[in-house]
Design a protein that fits this description.
Layout lengths: L1 E10 L2 E11 L4 E5 L6 H9 L6 E6 L2 E2 L5 H6 L1 E4 L11 H11 L4 H15 L15 H13 L5 E5 L7 H18 L2 E6 L2 H7 L2 E6 L2 E6 L1 H6 L4 H11 L13
Parallel strand pairs: 3-8, 3-9, 6-7, 7-8
Antiparallel strand pairs: 1-2, 1-4, 4-5, 9-10
Helix pairs in contact: 3-5, 4-5
Length: 252
């Protein structure tokens, strides 16, 4: 279980997050939802130890995140960022296997894991010899997912992984991700600002604004029993019909 207790965080003198007290259950998919700048990406970085909390504590399986445990802690988490974040000077295979090589995995062990992951994410094995610039956006995200899963982590963190993709590629990858989440049974935290994407993936939605949780529950909870007027406004903003500016008339 991932737990944050009274966590606040920020950059320089700017407060970004908290105080937050949250717990995420194992083997469930939670979506961190909210507008740009609400602190959702910072929340993932705090869980990874990339941004230290100024107050409060982070725990995984009841063990605190601290300087002595941070390396082991990060190896138990896979992290996928926007547009993949692949190293441009490394082939796809080298990107995926980078940490395994640092940990002195054997060649056969790496090859076996690569084979399993290419099948899991539906990537043509021949593409592993290409550099990121030679891959499409969807292919880069599949490679990034493979990299996150290489060490078979307990937790998968995804920070708006589908934002930069065109609609058809995005839909295909959504379907594949949902199957992967179901098959692997890992704890998944996915950040998005897209309500439809949250509804598609989530067992649980944490809606944020200005670094705080506005409502925490299922999609039905947020839609039918909004805890704050902001929840209703957020839903209405994403449900507005296309081509429907006030004052426009389509009649003759």
């Amino acid at each position: 279980m991932l737990e944050l207790s009274g966590v606040t965080a920020g950059y320089a003198n700017t407060h970004v997050l908290g105080p937050l007290t949250l717990a995420f259950e194992p083997r469930r998919t939670a979506v961190i939802l909210g507008p740009s700048g609400c602190g959702k990406s910072t929340l993932l970085k705090v869980l990874l130890g990339l941004v230290p909390p100024s107050k409060g504590s982070v725990q995984i399986e009841r063990r605190p995140l601290d300087p002595a445990s941070i390396v082991e802690h990060r190896r138990r988490m896979g992290y996928v960022i926007q547009e993949g974040g692949l190293f441009p000077h490394l082939t796809a295979e080298r990107n995926v296997s980078l940490m395994a090589r640092q940990l002195d995995w054997s060649g056969p062990q790496i090859a076996d894991r690569l084979g399993r992951l290419t099948e899991l994410v539906r990537l043509e094995p021949a593409l592993l010899t290409r550099f990121p610039s030679q891959l499409s956006g969807g292919q880069r995200q599949r490679v990034s997912l493979m990299r996150a899963l290489m060490l078979d982590p307990d937790v998968l963190l995804l920070d708006e992984p589908l934002t930069a993709l065109d609609p058809m590629v995005r839909r295909d990858l959504q379907d594949d991700l949902a199957e992967i989440f179901s098959e692997l049974g890992k704890t998944v935290l996915l950040v998005t600002h897209d309500l439809a994407e949250a509804a598609f993936f989530a067992d649980r939605i944490v809606l944020m604004r200005d670094g705080a949780v506005v409502q925490d529950g299922t999609f039905a909870d947020l839609e039918r029993s909004p805890a704050d007027p902001f929840v209703t406004r957020f839903f209405e903003a994403q449900h507005r019909p296309l081509g429907g500016r006030p004052g426009n008339s389509t009649g003759s």
